[in-house]
Amino acid sequence: MAELIDGKNVAEDVVRRVKALTAELLGKGALKPGLAVVIVGEDPASQVYVASKSRTAKECGFHSVQHTLPAETSEQELLDIIGELNADPAINGILVQLPLPSHIDAGKIIQTIAPQKDVDGFHFINVGKLGTGELETAFVPCTPAGSMLLIERVRGKDLSGLNAVVVGRSNIVGKPMANLLLAANCTVTIAHSRTKDLAALARTADILVAAVGRPEMVRGDWVKSGATVIDVGINRIAAPEKGEGKTRLVGDVAYAEAATMAGAITPVPGGVGPMTIAMLMANTLASAYLAAGLKRPS
Ligand code: NDP
């Protein structure tokens, strides 16, 4: 059976380290790292994520502010708030919770965030830095950054010559994940909905990352023996076995099947999910170190 990659545990390690480095930063006379989370509207899932981000920020010893705006907030009002946060020296990281209501152009909002405060790593400057291998100064999107840390725990930092297949090509997960694996010297293939014979392609992967959004799509016989499998997917499905109307979370990988083939695998929940918030804290800390004129912690 595969080794279970415990994302909750690794995320706790990251948060502990961020907390310690925050204390060190304060000891040098710098301001607390400041994270501003902006949420527009009342999407219940977004409310849960945002509450969890703000709670973890406080746990890290950050200055944490939350802007909870009504769904009818205009694009200009949101742009004005971003402008104020960009100019505020107490704020190092700005996160606008997506999705935004349809009358607001999310792309425009993201590109308005100052690149040095773009702790989600979605601004073109940060996307470009990652794409050109400028990893020292880029803010990398949190989910792929966290997935990479989990891969490193199993395989080490140098992944030279390993075949990596990333299923999914979103700007938030698939593409940045592929760039990180490329920077670590993997031979990378990105698969998507038009890819032919995905199962055969997946079987070539020493590292297989699934970021699709389709419950348990990756089957056990798609997995090469000994492969590292990272399941980014979070899907809620009906669970009649738990009672009427009950649901449960599953990933994009059929875990029980894949675990019989893989060398190591992330569970859902408790794999990649907890890493995303931990990496948001790490990015905010890095931004605070840079703002204080210090070297960013590695
Ligand atoms: P998107 O919907 O933006 O992208 C999904 C990708 O999967 C697309 O590139 C799409 O291809 C591809 N795809 C869809 N169907 C198939 C198929 N049948 N075969 C092959 N490829 C397919 O999703 P995200 O990248 O935002 O998220 C992916 C998953 O990760 C979701 O379950 C999401 O909930 C989860 N997630 C988890 C996070 C975490 O913190 N753990 C954070 C972010 C996301 P095409 O481009 O051709 O349409």
Automatic annotation (TrEMBL):
Occurrences of domain Tetrahydrofolate dehydrogenase/cyclohydrolase catalytic (ranges): 5-120
Keyword terms, alphabetized: Amino-acid biosynthesis, Histidine biosynthesis, Hydrolase, Methionine biosynthesis, Multifunctional enzyme, NADP, One-carbon metabolism, Oxidoreductase, Purine biosynthesis
Domain Tetrahydrofolate dehydrogenase/cyclohydrolase NAD(P)-binding: 141-288
Pathway it works in: One-carbon metabolism; tetrahydrofolate interconversion
Reaction equation(s) it catalyzes: (6R)-5,10-methylene-5,6,7,8-tetrahydrofolate + NADP(+) = (6R)-5,10-methenyltetrahydrofolate + NADPH; (6R)-5,10-methenyltetrahydrofolate + H2O = (6R)-10-formyltetrahydrofolate + H(+)
Pfam families: THF_DHG_CYH (PF00763), THF_DHG_CYH_C (PF02882)
Enzyme Commission number(s) of this protein: 1.5.1.5, 3.5.4.9
Gene3D superfamilies: Leucine Dehydrogenase, chain A, domain 1, NAD(P)-binding Rossmann-like Domain
UniProt: NADP(+) binding residues: G168, R169, S170, I234
GO biological process, one term: purine nucleotide biosynthetic process
Gene Ontology CC annotations of this record: cytosol
NCBIfam families in the record: PRK10792.1, PRK14186.1, PRK14188.1
HAMAP family, per database record: THF_DHG_CYH
Family assignment from sequence similarity: Belongs to the tetrahydrofolate dehydrogenase/cyclohydrolase family.
Subunit structure: Homodimer.
Protein name: Bifunctional protein FolD
Gene responsible for this protein: folD
